[in-house]
């Protein structure tokens, strides 16, 4: 695997012969599918790219709560409200698992969250789009969590142990998120008024392309993929995952009786996959640069939440210190 990557002109990858003894031992461990644990030696680059990816994954989970939070008070029934609240609480938990996995690499949670607020690190671009209708709650669950599942199921096999184990737990909950979202759309398409059916199609039109962008730039534009694949942080490339998502989603789209905003989307018998149109990469990079519809609002909301909750963290810290002091005095 590793040798192949080097042969395919992956210029930046060292050959096994060029590696130091520790780097070579590490790479052979990864190639032998041995999980890397926090206490194991690892190349600084491996640690850094994991902190980068896991922290951004955690930020995505937490910022990802905001588009749905917008609809908790306006859910059409108590049942839908409860489902939405359960999903949002799950996302908060996913953020906590991932921040904890990140901390095993020596990263500091407060520092990484400060970087998020300073706009120097990323979170998934999809969360910079507004949720304008109730149908968006269905589409976010079905498409956004659906895309996240495709990525995260594969990430369960990532080479870093704590990340892999966090994924196993997260994937179990994501499946509920996707199913409840699809059910919202199915109910609207089967029992809804003409206006509600149009609401579903409008929602899919707005979220289709940004959901495809969740898998990252095309492989030839991805600066991180080759090394991440060599270290088995990534097990499949961005384009492979995107194609898997499209292939599984189009039949669900057709079952809904809806269409995608892509005239080039059609089954290619020869390839055994769906062909699809060109993604608007200008839009993708504009949103990454902070120029999406909701970037500023999302960060502002996160900053206010962190500032507003400071007293809770302070009180918990004082309580924990007092409890520890008491235990020490009693010992
Ligand atoms: N949004 C924001 N940034 C993105 C992005 C997106 N959709 N896609 C790629 N990027 C960024 C990358 O972070 C990288 O920037 P950086 O070097 O400053 O970190 C740059 O664009 C180039 O992309 P690469 O493909 O080279 O970067 P990666 O190798 O890290 O691949 C990734 C990108 C596929 C998103 C990978 O980081 C990954 O698999 N992350 C874990 C999964 C994840 O974060 N999913 C986000 C959604 S979580 C979610 O949806 C919650 C669910 O419960 C709703």
UniProtKB/TrEMBL annotation:
<dbReference type="InterPro" id="IPR011881">
    <property type="entry name" value="PaaA"/>
</dbReference>
<dbReference type="InterPro" id="IPR012347">
    <property type="entry name" value="Ferritin-like"/>
</dbReference>
<dbReference type="InterPro" id="IPR007814">
    <property type="entry name" value="PaaA_PaaC"/>
</dbReference>
<dbReference type="InterPro" id="IPR009078">
    <property type="entry name" value="Ferritin-like_SF"/>
</dbReference>
<dbReference type="Pfam" id="PF05138">
    <property type="entry name" value="PaaA_PaaC"/>
</dbReference>
<protein>
    <submittedName>
        <fullName>Phenylacetate-CoA oxygenase subunit PaaA</fullName>
    </submittedName>
</protein>
<dbReference type="InterPro" id="IPR052703">
    <property type="entry name" value="Aromatic_CoA_ox/epox"/>
</dbReference>
